[in-house]
Design goal:
201 residues; mainly alpha; 6 helices; 0% strand
Length: 201
């Protein structure tokens, strides 16, 4: 009963957090070159940073689980890996929206887009396979391997139309501060999503 009350409270907080995120996205500062279309770029950036953070946390929790052989770490790795996948998958339509709004078309041969799509497919198949296998240690090992492969791929992928760091290459401190605030709120949503899954372990 207490767990159900906690879950309902978390769902309520998550709903509020999502509303705040989209309010922030609508009120984001315009930019000289992209105008108000830059708001979807902010959101897409915050979303992918959150996905990567969740994946990295899943790998670290999984590594801790493998080293210390504690099920709690495996449980967090499972939940964080699924949260990372959720945000990675939902980042894809945001990326398409950002392309359409700012490039007036979909440049699907852009290397970062292709990499994102490949790791989306691999991530879905891996999580489905790990769910069927239902072995905590294998889940942790899978999250470690997947995250390592993703980080290596991102490090070596060339930038064609996608700049390396469009926000922090800007001189506008208000844009950087706003983006960090947006990232914090999206990270909070990811933590709430993760907690809902951990509570089921």
């Amino acid at each position: 009963m207490l767990k159900q009350i906690k879950n309902r409270t978390t769902w309520l907080y998550l709903s509020i957090t999502v509303l705040v995120i989209f309010a922030l996205a609508l009120l984001g500062p315009a930019e000289k070159a992209l105008g108000s279309n830059v708001r979807v770029v902010y959101l897409h950036g915050a979303w992918v940073w959150t996905a990567l953070t969740a994946y990295l946390a899943a790998a670290l929790a999984g590594l801790a689980g493998l080293v210390f052989r504690k099920n709690a770490f495996h449980c967090w790795s499972l939940a964080l890996g699924r949260t990372g996948l959720l945000f990675w998958l939902t980042y894809l339509p945001l990326s398409l929206w950002a392309m359409q709004a700012n490039w007036n078309g979909l440049f699907l041969s852009e290397p970062r887009w292709r990499l994102a799509l490949v790791f989306s497919v691999v991530g879905v198949l891996m999580q489905a396979g790990l769910a069927l296998l239902a072995r905590p240690a294998w889940t942790s090992a899978g999250n470690v391997a997947f995250t390592a492969a993703l980080l290596v791929a991102l490090r070596n992928i060339p930038n064609v139309m996608h700049p390396a760091s469009p926000i922090f290459s800007s001189d506008a401190l208000r844009i950087q501060f706003y983006f960090l605030l947006l990232v914090v709120m999206v990270l909070l949503a990811a933590l709430q999503v993760t907690y809902l899954q951990v509570s089921r372990c």
